Amino acid sequence: MKIGNKKIETNVFLSPLAGCADLAFRLIAREFGAGFGFFEMLDANALIYGASKNIEILKSHPDDQPIAAQLLGSGTDKMVEAARKLLEIVQPTFIDINAACPAKKVLKKKAGAYLLSRPEDLYRIISSLTQAISLPITVKLRTGFDERNVARVVEIAKKCQQSGAAALFVHGRTQKQAYTGEIDYEAIKAIKYNVTIPVFGSGNVFSPKKAKEMVDRTGCDGVLVARGSFGDPWIFKNIEQYLATGTVADQVSLELKIAVLKKHLAYVQKYKQRRPRGNIGFMRKIAMWYLKKDEVRRRVTEVKSYEELLELIDSVMGNV
After folding, report:
1. 88-133 pLDDT per residue, tens
2. Cα 275 to chain center, whole Å?
3. What is the pLDDT at residue 155?
4. d(Cα 280, Cα 286) in Å, to the nearest integer?
5. What are phi and psi of 161, to 5 degrees?
6. Which of 110, 153, 258, 259 is the most buried (most CB within 10 A)?
7. For residue 171, what pLDDT is reported?
8. Angle between helices 306-318 and 254-271 in degrees, nearest 10
9. Confidence band (pLDDT; 50, 70, 90) for 277?
10. Which residues are documented as binding site?
11. Mean pLDDT over all residues of the chain?
12. CA distance linking residue 27 with residue 267, whole number of Å
């Protein structure tokens, strides 16, 4: 598929998961089949004013390619300045505008899904970015702001394309729904059939079968995988296989899952900036993604160090 002038070999993308999809996460996903990913979501103001967290977010690796960047912000001048700052650090395949984040603190900054309530601002940002930089500009949308309104979101999508957007990533819920409720496949389908640029479906892609349901019910060109990849870096390859052949991959053994978890944690140790109290809180979260038994998860919450967590993980294998 092509997004703007960029050819991309897959239609299954890893989402820009803030606080989760760091370099360690992405490298594990790449090793098991993720063909395209995003950096974690980037705050435009933080980029402009040189916040140190962006150095952490923008860490990359030769194996972490191809990759896109998503900007969260408002105001044409600030978004253009942030994009230029971004390009001084990395060269992504394209830049995405976040018009989908439902968080209240983001809405207060007139960013994220707020832009759906003021779409003229969004169109100006798209137009300004396409004129200011040479990379394709894409947009992450939701199916509405307060209420479902298919005609309105279709009109927004069409005007995004007219303003220069090279692709649309559509989360199938409104801002008000956040991450609850059913996916609005009909709204995504309506967008897909009213624009000529690629449209990706997003929301509840927790398995290959859910990915196929998204594609079948909307006609979308691809899918974004977000929470479905937590503890399951195989999901990207498995979705591609299921979409292509209709066959389901074999279930991953506990032994392999444990080995990958330990490798993921080792990457966190290697690549993630150390916090004053270490990264154990972050590591506990990762371990909970892979380990599903309630008793094991309870014990994970009690560990105090990386070494102690590894001992617990080894004990899980010893008790199989």
Report:
1. 999 999 999 999 999 999 999 999 999 999 999 999 999 999 999 9
2. 24
3. 98
4. 10
5. -60, -45
6. 153
7. 98
8. 170
9. low
10. 70, 140, 171, 226-227
11. 95
12. 8
Task: Please give the annotated binding residues for FMN, written as ranges.
Answer: 70, 140, 171, 226-227
Closest CA to 190 of 225, 154, 164: 154
The mean pLDDT of 50-67, rounded to a whole number, is 89
Q: Could you give phi then psi for residue 81, rounded to 5 degrees?
A: -60, -40
CATH topology of domain 2-245: TIM Barrel (3.20.20)
Q: Is the pTM of this model over 0.90?
A: yes
Q: What is the pLDDT of residue 147?
A: 84
Up-side HSE of residue 249: CA atoms within 13 Å toward CB?
19
Cα-based torsion angle of the residue sequence 269, 270, 273, 279 in order, rounded to the nearest 10 degrees = 0
Q: Does residue 225 sit in helix, strand or coil?
A: strand
C-alpha to C-alpha distance for 25 and 13, rounded to whole angstroms: 14
Contact 113, 101 (CB under 8 A): yes
Tell me the catalytic residues. 101
